[in-house]
Amino acid sequence: MTVQVAAHRKPPQRPISGHTAARTAATLALAGAATATGFDGTGHAEPHLTPTQVKAKVDTLYREAEAATEKYNGVKEEADAAQRRLSALQDETARKQTRLNSAREALGSIAAAQYRDGGIDPAWQLALSSDPDRYLDGAAFAERAGDRQAAAVSRVRRHLREIERLRGAARVELKSLRSRQAELNRQKKTVTGKLDEARRLLARLTPRQRTEATGADGTGGRRASRSAADPREPLARAGSVPAPTTRAAAAVAYAYSKLGSPYVWGATGPNAFDCSGLVLAAYRSAGISLPRTTYGQIGAGRRVSRAELRPGDLVFFYSGISHVGIYVGNGRMIHAPNPSAPVRLAPVDQMPFAGATRVA
After folding, report:
1. Which residues form a coiled coil (predicted)?
2. Residue 4: CA atoms inside 13 Å, Cβ hemisphere, count?
3. Of the listed 8, 19, 48, 335, which one is catalytic?
């Protein structure tokens, strides 16, 4: 039997009418627009996120923003110190310049006196003098004046060298300051970018979903919400173990007095704080000066274990030591969480514990 295989033929092409062509062009244009916005990476429409997914992204953004905030605080501290050094160098240069001007004036007076005397060779002045004894007395004075002139020249030279040294040091400090200011701007851009993204994500939720996503303490912790239900809780109820020193007790009292204050990144009070700013202000009120950043604060005192915690101890969180609070007893702390929540009480175990320090 012979099997014949039919040849596959292309169906005849039908001419495209004007209406069909327009419709086809519109379809291709829409497809191109969808491709441009859906696959180029810049205009990609965000997938719909559940409140739980929003919470996870916002928590991550807040942690990254806080780490950048601590870097910003550290660089700002360095920039402020560089500015103070530069100002001191400028002040010292101005004082040296005043002394140089005085030395130049003294030297100018000596030169003017020599000019008035005509600058005649001393041997001829002696020969032509009508009163040799008087001239010799004057020559001795002129010799002493010459010594004063040499000393004046030496002072001018010394002041010039000192001024040049100070100006060189000022140039170095100015370069350092500008470098730190550029780094400040980079860190500020990082912080504000992450906070803006967090706000944008939260704005997509309903008020109830935002509350569930952020939690009463800004981290989604329901236990923290119950702990911070009453910001007027007396200090006496903070814990059964008293603060080890009066200064630690004063720092704890200050922290309690700031419950409800807003979180503002880079702020150190008296009306707003970031996490390390609250710690700085609390111990400043107790007469103790601490470093500005979490990285500096963890090394400012004696390290203590979690089992040894007493009110006033500083408790740190996350592997990067990017968050800090003040322990107040009963397993709780007062801290400035993030922009979604004010200063409040929270359990110490709501974040990954990284260490603790006793500074008073």
Report:
1. 58-106, 160-201
2. 2
3. 335
323 catalytic? Reply is yes
275 in active site: yes
Same domain, 148 and 108: yes
> CA dihedral defined by 189, 195, 197, 203, rounded to 10 degrees?
-150
Last residue of a domain, one of 138, 170, 203: 203
Q: Provide the residue range defining the domain that includes 166.
A: 51-203
Number of domains in the chain: 2
Question: How many residues appear in the chain?
Answer: 360
Phi and psi at residue 23, in whole multiples of 5°? -65, -40
Looking at the fold, whether 58 and 177 belong to one and the same domain comes out as: yes
Q: How many CB atoms lie within 10 A of CB 101?
A: 12
Gyration radius from the chain CA atoms: 38
DSSP symbol at 327 = E
For the beta sheet containing 344-347, the strands, ordered from the edge strand earlier in sequence to the opposite edge, are: 302-304, 353-358, 314-317, 323-329, 332-335, 344-347
Question: Which secondary structure element, helix H or strand E, spans residue 284, and what is its range?
Answer: helix 275-285
Q: Which residues does residue 303 pair with via DSSP β-bridges, in sequence order? A: 357
pLDDT, tens digit, 9 for 90 and up, residues 152-195 = 777 778 888 888 899 999 999 899 889 888 988 888 899 889 98
Question: SS3 sequence, 222-280?
Answer: HHHHHHCCCCCCCHHHCCCCCCCCHHHHHHHHHHHHCCCCCECCCCECCCCECHHHHHH
pLDDT tens, residue by residue, 46-85: 567 788 888 888 889 998 999 999 999 999 888 989 999 9
pTM reported for the whole predicted model? 0.62
Q: Is 44 a catalytic residue?
A: no
Q: Which two tokens stand for residue 220?
A: 């989604």
pLDDT at 112 over 70: no
Which is catalytic among the residues 19, 44, 159, 275? 275
